[in-house]
Amino acid sequence: MRVVVEADGGSRGNPGPAGYGSVVRDTDGQVLLERQGALGTTTNNVAEYTGLIEGLRAAHELGATEVDVRMDSKLVVEQMSGRWQIKNAGLRPLAAEAAQLVARFGRVTFEWIPRERNKAADALANRAMDEAAGKPVSDRIEPEVVTPAAPKSWAPPSLDNATRLILVRHGETAYTQQGRYSGRGDVPLSDQGEAQAMAAGGRVAGISRDVTAIVSSPLRRCVRTAEHISAEVGGVPVTVVDDLIEVDFGLWEGLTFAEVQEGWPTEMNAWLASTSVAPPGGESFQAAAKRVRGAMATILSSYGEGVVVVVSHVSPIKLILRDALAASDAFLHRMFLDAAGVSTMDVWPDGNIAVRSVNETAHLR
Q1: I need a labelling partner for 42 at 20 to 30 A (CA). Which of 1, 8, 62, 300 fits?
Q2: 306 — phi, psi (to 5°)?
Q3: 186 touches 240 (CB < 8 A)
Q4: Among 345, 316, 329, which Cα is nearest to 271's?
Q5: Residue partners of 333: CB distance under 8 A and separation at least 6
Q6: CA–CA gap between residue 229 and residue 5 (Å, rounded)
Q7: What whole-number distance in Å separates Cα of residue 321 and Cα of residue 108?
Q8: Rounded Cα–Cα distance for residues 279 and 275 (Å)
């Protein structure tokens, strides 16, 4: 089956409140499926890529084998067609996810169309922003102009214009000790967790004492960990980023794996099999990935060159590392992250990423 995907996204502020819209049509122009959603605070380009991803995902769910993608984003069309390099580091994971979806179809084409021919997707994106913010539609921001990247080289990359991200999982809590799902519940650090957080601060200081910023999930176990790190690197202020919060485990919050397996065996198996499935009353990994990508794009655009410490939870850090390594969804269930474990990666403006370490724990011994 051949379908047409019309996709768009917008951000009121770039970065600012953002939303996406996707329309799937048959070849006669009949609407088969529509999708829209708010993305919190992120950039125009992130929203446009999200619209594309959701449109491709919808086409796949409908059983399409051929897709004609039409967008008014020159940037997305040219990058997905392979004619432009991806300069913005925050867009590279999104382009990789879109490419994985493209591979599921027998044929996919990309066509740039004027905005007036993309009104349906644009209207959905604006409706999503309006519903989230309760504001009237404001003018859209034009996508940034991207020029081709410099030729690749085998020479070790200079760190002069890189952003170093130090990813730190919060210290131990009572739930961590007991192997319980800890999502949105605001569980504090245990005494052991406090000691681990201080040790993590020492490790971060060992990586760099010239920390530009410390950003944290809003939950206490992360904020407290971030405060310990701040004390070790000269009192850098801690900034809360709401979208770095843990996945919502819904009805499974506070339960062990065994308890969930006993009470929800069918739902558990479906959740383990697909990132699109959410726990009952909770949030899927796909949904979490969208907000985490938006948060990371905003962090990279806000702080640019320098060293940024990101204090978060197991799921958001796994999602960041999965995208950085261009890994499959299986990575999420194969990667273990210890409490107060530290991972390090460098990100360049041209989209290159180098993962330096994953789940360092020597500082905890």
Answers
A1: 62
A2: 140, -165
A3: no
A4: 329
A5: 272
A6: 46
A7: 28
A8: 10
pLDDT at 156 over 60: no
Model pLDDT for residues 117-127, shown as the tens digit of each residue:
999 999 999 99
| CA 6/CA 284 separation, integer angstroms | 25
Global pTM exceeds 0.85: no
CA distance 162 to 356: 13
246 counts as catalytic: yes
Q: Of 150, 149, 67, which is closest to residue 110 (Cα–Cα)?
A: 67
Peptide bond into 15 cis (omega under 30): yes
- C-alpha torsion angle, residues 283, 286, 289, 294 (rounded to 10): -100
Residue 26 · residue 3 · CB < 8 Å: yes
Domains of the chain from N-terminus onward:
2-133 (3.30.420.10), 163-364 (3.40.50.1240)
- Cα–chain center distance at 45: 14
Structure tokens at 329: 């969804």
pLDDT bucket at 115, cuts 50 / 70 / 90: confident
Rounded-to-10 torsion of CA 123, 125, 128, 132: -120
- Catalytic annotation present for 60: no
How do residues 5-34 score in pLDDT, each as one tens digit? 999 999 988 888 999 999 999 988 999 999
Label residue 259 by pLDDT band (50, 70, 90): very high
Q: Are 168 and 308 in contact (CB under 8 A)?
A: no
pLDDT of residue 147: 34
Place of tokens 């084998």: 65
Contact predicate 357/363, CB 8 Å:
no
Active-site annotation holder among 6, 97, 170, 283? 170
Q: What is the pLDDT of residues 292-313, one digit of tens each?
A: 988 888 888 888 789 999 999 9
Q: Which of 246, 267, 283, 360 is catalytic?
A: 246
Helix (H, G, I), strand (E, B) or coil at 91: helix
Q: What type of residue sits at position 341?
A: G
